[in-house]
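Handoff note, outgoing to incoming analyst
You'll be picking up this chain. Sequence as last confirmed:
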Amino acid sequence: MLLQLLYSVDSREKCKYKMMIDISKIFRYILTYLLIPLTLLSLSAFTGCSSIYHFTPPNEPDKLKPLLVFGQRGKTQERFQLIDAIVIDKDSYIYVGDQSGMIHKISPGGRFLSKIGRKGRGDGEFADEVKGIAIDSEERLIAVDKYNFRVQVFDLDGNFIFNFGSHGAEPGHFLGPEGIAVDSAGRIYVTDHIKLTVQIFDRNGAFIKEFGGKPDRFFSMRKMHHIDKAVMGLQDGRFYGIESIAWYDGMLYVAEEDHGRIQVFTDEGDFLGIIGNQGVGKGYFHDEVEGIVINSEGFIFAVDEGKEATGVIEIFDPRGRSVYHFKSDLPLESPDGIALDEKLGRIYVTDQNNYRVQAFDLNEIRSKIQHGSELQKKREKFE
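Most recent structure output, in case you need it:
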């Protein structure tokens, strides 16, 4: 009886806190999209100053036609089960991580060539889904073996070289490794979805340092696990749900997927700033930030998974300002990994729920970004 009573009280507490958060969200949307615009428009009418408030509803992303689509569902070498990570080598060959415990090597034309790895626990084998993949300056393929709690290293022909890491909460060990990136010096950066940290290793897999961790409020507020996750973890330099990571010009970009934003650090782990936020429209993430990649000019490409909606690719300039977003004119459901091939002018996105990869014209996207930039400059002159 006592246990039943405690359970009942705890359930009421959960409902109470959940209701508080739901009401808070509703009030925030009413305030943002109704009360503030109406108040400012009234002030504008009263003062005769039409420039007090500019209300621009969230614009729809452009629909782009893919240049190339390949893959279908299945368990054989030339089919996908649950694809996630994707990376491109200097010769435009494509590598796609799959739940089948392998990495598919695919030609630039979308033809399946070979597989790297298989399911298992031994060297060169993967326990399940291959979560993150990167290629370093030595042309080594470095892949996250999440459920074996390690990172594996191959050459581009699929020959196993070595692996590093093991299960554990200590520095240099993993509880839930997911995303991976490499820098120009060969250092390897691995995100851990359970430890909520980024760990740095040298090119040989020797541990260097770790940064990040759970937000302070995660520990200090006893009932936070009953409350909507949107109110917890918003602490700069700390994480609540991380997956993808990218390195560019001495900076690390870490996708904090459960909060719809990207945190930016130096490659030593010093916090620099935030890109994006949860919301609606260009520059906002409807739900989870999944894959991220940076081009040679420093533009950030990030996947907004969308959940109920179609996936969208958000693009930010090197200063973190939103410049463009698009979606496919084909269904793009639960997109995840993203990769750029600037040599062929393509951007690849893994289309998880449709068991395929879609490729888009990078030059077309560049042109649209340039057009938008020129249009913005003209608007600023007019204002």
